[in-house]
Design goal:
homodimer, mainly alpha, Arc Repressor Mutant, subunit A, 2 domains, two-stranded antiparallel ribbon, elongated, DNA-binding
Chain lengths: ~200, ~200
DNA sequence: TCGATATATATCATTCTGATATATGGGGGC
DNA sequence: GCCCCCATATATCAGAATGATATATATCGA
């Protein structure tokens, strides 16, 4: 799913400028499951304009720079609905923090605790913020992703709170498995995946 | 965190080829919170070799193509530990499925149910697979990320199972908020974030 | 008055993805 | 026996995205 489609999605909710679209991915309702930067949004809007999927109106503002407000056309809506009808690609989760915590034994104790507590605080903040959101009057899709995010963050937060002291206190180097063991593990998983897919999933 | 650092992390667990490193991100212990493709791994290994952070030994195999086995040097280990001491960047989660489900009202009912059930099945599969993992003898870091992943997936799965029927059955277009309302919402969130960060978090 | 922050658009080097190319060998189906 | 698919293994590349930077204006607090 490219940024053009993401922009069309945002514009299906109402007219917006590139700056506003970016805010939707930075702090808005999409922030927790998608992101896009200026460097991809502005070129995407140019392409959408060329293709006739959006229109552009320059609006002068007092006390602020001019704004280019984009609006979706019928062709754009069709394009968006076509994209929505495809099979979605797999989720992609990237966490530098979890990668670091994986290598806890290589880290200094103070730094490890610092990272752990900052990560916990972040999740606690997200949970509180999403809980505080008023979900009356929202579309079912918006309600669903809100609940989904809350449920996952709550699961993660509870785990981190429950396991903090034991994790930070447990001994370094206990139980060390080598590369061969990891690769064997993986082979077993591969077979499972193949079996599951052959069984009819996805 | 660039792919060079990710490769060093894998190599800190034992010697490996580019192909094997890729498997670690595709199906191995890192699969659920990081990914890297050949197109980034092979160039990264070349750069690490030039920098003296790894060594390379070509190994002939019977019945299989030759293998380039990479091993971390002392300089490489130092480099990796330096990278681990930095403040980790923010998590990045991207889900095309959640983006589509956000726009549930734009989707055909059959397709919506299909996407929902496939997504649920995927999470159920992950939960079962991680539960089945033998965690005895693993390092505390490995144990932690396993538990973390399980807790988040369980939270998401429970939510999807509990809300399926209500979500799919609820009426289209109920409660429609416009762009202005979304942007107002965001402004409130921004202030919260600033307050929280000023308060000492992270 | 100075610096920081917010609004707003735009560009670009670097990086990463996803696809493709190349080569070998094993296993299953017919 | 033959064909096709899959797994192993390395490498490259077009296209896309990131993160940083440049530019300009206005507000707010110190």
């Amino acid at each position: 799913m490219d940024v053009k489609t993401l922009c069309l999605g945002v514009l299906s909710l109402g007219d917006a400028s590139g700056y506003e679209i970016r805010k939707m991915f930075e702090e808005g309702p999409f922030a927790h499951f998608h992101q896009a930067s200026y460097g991809s949004i502005y070129p995407a809007l140019s392409k959408l304009l060329d293709a006739g999927h959006v229109t552009c109106t320059v609006k002068a503002q007092d006390g602020r720079p001019d704004k280019k407000v984009y609006a979706m056309t019928d062709a754009g809506l069709n394009q968006f609905r076509t994209a929505l009808f495809k099979i979605p690609g797999a989720d992609k989760f990237r966490s530098e923090t979890l990668f670091m915590l994986f290598f806890a034994d290589q880290l200094d104790d103070g730094h490890l605790a610092e990272i752990y507590d900052a990560y916990t605080a972040q999740y606690r903040f997200f949970v509180e913020k999403i809980r505080a959101l008023d979900n009356t009057g929202l579309s079912r899709g918006r309600k669903f992703v809100r609940g989904f995010g809350l449920a996952t963050y709550e699961g993660a937060l509870r785990y981190m709170e429950d396991n903090r002291d034991h994790f930070l206190a447990s001994a370094k180097g206990e139980g060390w498995r080598d590369m061969e063991a990891l690769l064997e593990c993986m082979e077993a998983e591969t077979q499972d995946i193949n079996k599951a897919l052959a069984g009819g999933d996805k």
